[in-house]
Amino acid sequence: MGPRAGSASSPGARPAPGSAAGYPFRGPGLVARVVPFAAVAVLAEASLALPPGPQSQSAVIASIVLLLATAAEFALPWERLPAWLSVLVPLTYSASVLALVLAAGPTSGVGIVILIPVVWTALFHRRWESACIVAAIMLLQGIVSLTPVVAEDSVTARRVLLWGALGALISVAAHGLRARISRSQQESARLQERLREVTVMEDRERIAADLRDKVIQQIFGAGLTLQGAASLTTQREVRRRLESSVADLDRAVRLIRQAIFGLGHRSPGRGLRQDVLDLCGGLDPAPEVSFSGPVDRALNPGARAELLGLLREALGVLGNESVPARVSIAAGEDSCLAVVEARSARELSALRAAAARAGARIDIEPVPGGTRLAWRFPAGAAVGGGVRT
């Protein structure tokens, strides 16, 4: 339905705000709107040449004049005319159809072209304008019914021709309407997705603010209380446990701060952070995982997939008896560093080869209690660089 369809139903109402001035007789897609209807109208006029020919030359002339007047009305300054005058165009063509039927005869089969203004107003005009066209059709049928009927002669070809043309017209108009509906649905889906993203980001900002202003302050206060209690006791075991609890609270604060950073800097979509958590979450027991910096934005999709592949292969090479104790991902301004620390490691050559294929720099070194593996990707790196060990 054109923009006029959304207007108020009173005859004097103007088009809705944002409608193209003069629609449907102006604006983008005018040719596509008019050509199918014009083609059927011209074909109906041309069908008068079929035998036995027109019964009234004056009615033929009147039909052609009214058809030309309908076309000329498209050139009127619709931007400056009252909105209700738009019904003048389909009414003028309805009068042309009446003259055409009188010229060809009431049994000629040409009267089906009265569907042209019906379809046009249904697609591009308001409801009250369609009601006017229906009233005009009723009047047309009344006039035709009063016309003397002559013997039918050679009307089959005309009926087949015009019904086929009208079928094509309705198909084109219906598919055009479906295309507009489809575009509207796609635009609505995009707006819904954007609204969802904005809602998610607002929720993340609210959660991050609550964690920063409330939870961290509560944990920090509890840590200070435990530190004070530890300084008051003379029992070594009690002091050790209190100090261990304070250290646990410090680690909890660091984890919460990392979560706050992630809430504020990652996009609503899935990122490297979630992929690493899912990968490590499948291990039993799961290693400790930590992040620092804008991890989700540090690598392009190709490099991110390569890094996940390296971590997956490393975790498999390390074996069940040496589950990683810690996995950390750090994103800086110029690189992204992934580190795995395990109690032991085997088949290090396979890890070197995997890093070489991925184009990452790998550092393998012993650390107290195990082995440290570190992969470094340039920030935003593409795949396929080289390997340095």
List the SSEs and their pairings.
Elements: H1 30-46, H2 57-73, H3 88-104, H4 115-124, H5 127-145, H6 156-232, H7 236-265, H8 272-281, E1 288-292, H9 301-318, E2 326-331, E3 335-342, H10 348-358, E4 361-367, E5 370-378
Parallel strand pairs: 1-2
Antiparallel strand pairs: 2-3, 3-5, 4-5
Helix pairs in contact: 1-6, 2-3, 3-4, 3-5, 4-5, 4-6, 6-7, 8-9, 9-10
Can you describe this structure?
The chain has ten helices and five strands. It has helices at residues 30-46, 57-73, 88-104, 115-124, 127-145, 156-232, 236-265, 272-281, 301-318, 348-358, and strands at residues 288-292, 326-331, 335-342, 361-367, 370-378. The longest helix has 77 residues, at 156-232.
- The strand count comes to 5
Number of helical stretches of at least 4 residues: 10
- Structural Rg: 39 Å
Largest beta sheet: what is the strand line-up?
1-2-3-5-4
The largest β sheet comes out as:
5 strands, mixed
Q: Strand share of the residues?
A: 5-15%
Broad shape: elongated
Q: How far apart are the first and last residues' alpha carbons, in Å? A: 67 Å
Keywords:
389 residues, alpha+beta, 5-stranded mixed beta sheet, 10 helices, 5 strands, elongated, disordered C terminus
Quick take:
The protein is α+β, with helices and mostly antiparallel strands and 389 residues long.
